[in-house]
What we know:
Strand order of the largest sheet: 5-2-6-7-1-8
Number of strands: 12
Number of helices: 7
Radius of gyration: 22 Å
Keywords: ATP-binding, DNA synthesis, Kinase, Nucleotide-binding, Transferase
Strand content: 15-25%
Order of helices and strands: HHEHEEEEHHEHEEEEEEH
Distance between the termini: 86 Å
Family: Belongs to the thymidine kinase family.
InterPro entries: P-loop_NTPase (IPR027417), Thymidine_kinase (IPR001267), Thymidine_kinase_CS (IPR020633)
Bound molecules: adenosine-5'-diphosphate, the ligand Cc1cn([C@H]2C[C@H](O)[C@@H](COP(=O)(O)O)O2)c(=O)[nH]c1=O
Catalytic activity: thymidine + ATP = dTMP + ADP + H(+)
Largest sheet: 6 strands, parallel
EC number: 2.7.1.21
Structural class: alpha/beta
Amino acid sequence: xxxxxxxxxxxxxxxxxxxxxxxxxxxxxxxxxxxxxxxxxxxxxxxxxxxxxxxxxxxxxxxxxxxxxxxxxxxxxxxxxxxxxxxxxxxxxxxxxxxxxxxxxxxxxxxxxxxxxxxxxxxxxxxxxxxxxxxxxxxxxxxxxxxxxxxxxxxxxxxxxxxxxxxxxxxxxxxxxxxxxxxxxxxxxxxxxxxxxxxxxxxxxxxxxxxxxxxxxxxxxxxxxxxxxx
Length: 230
Ligand SMILES: Nc1ncnc2c1ncn2[C@@H]1O[C@H](COP(=O)(O)OP(=O)(O)O)[C@@H](O)[C@H]1O
Ligand SMILES: Cc1cn([C@H]2C[C@H](O)[C@@H](COP(=O)(O)O)O2)c(=O)[nH]c1=O
């Protein structure tokens, strides 16, 4: 099937001979093995003689600046970019034409994911393999990852192991009180959990956030009160 697909020609679209692109999406919670799976597929494409390039978001400063790194330390050199539109420009037009396969890690951080994938696969004939979080710590759709599902050839949803009971984990629980959507971190900030422990964990975290918030309000109102004259 793969051999048939890669020989399909798009020459009728713009007169130039190009092969059809592909889009493969890997989603799941943190620690599910998304980056591991992306690296395995990219390495395998490279071993099959295809020109590969890897991109990650420059927001991800966790383990290395210019490498994609898994939680257990596997590494692959990459372009760390603020957006995907800058990829072709960084690489140069000639080098971009020669790339067959593009891996994208931490896809939730790229706002221009949809437009980039459309152009690269539909027009430029690239195979794109994307790894990212489908949901944030509140299980809301994260970035543009779900928007590219209708464009995809394949979608793989991976699971991790619940850190509290060992069952399959579908969600990323944030262990700290921060409430912004984007918060870079690893096992210090997040843990993979099953549904039951996500629900329990959210109740505990919500209570902790409320306590912190009320302490903050109290100390602010005390600061506003003039000190008593003794
Ligand atoms: N709770 C955890 N804390 C730290 N490392 C973990 C944890 N659970 C799994 N791992 C390791 O992380 C690896 C997966 O890493 P990675 O591919 O980077 O995941 P993802 O990209 O989905 O976050 C697993 O093979 C395992 O060795
Ligand atoms: C759930 C959640 C995660 N993030 C951040 C934390 C990490 O830096 C990445 C995910 O990395 P991984 O390779 O999938 O382990 O995303 C965030 O910013 N907000 C969230 O809600």
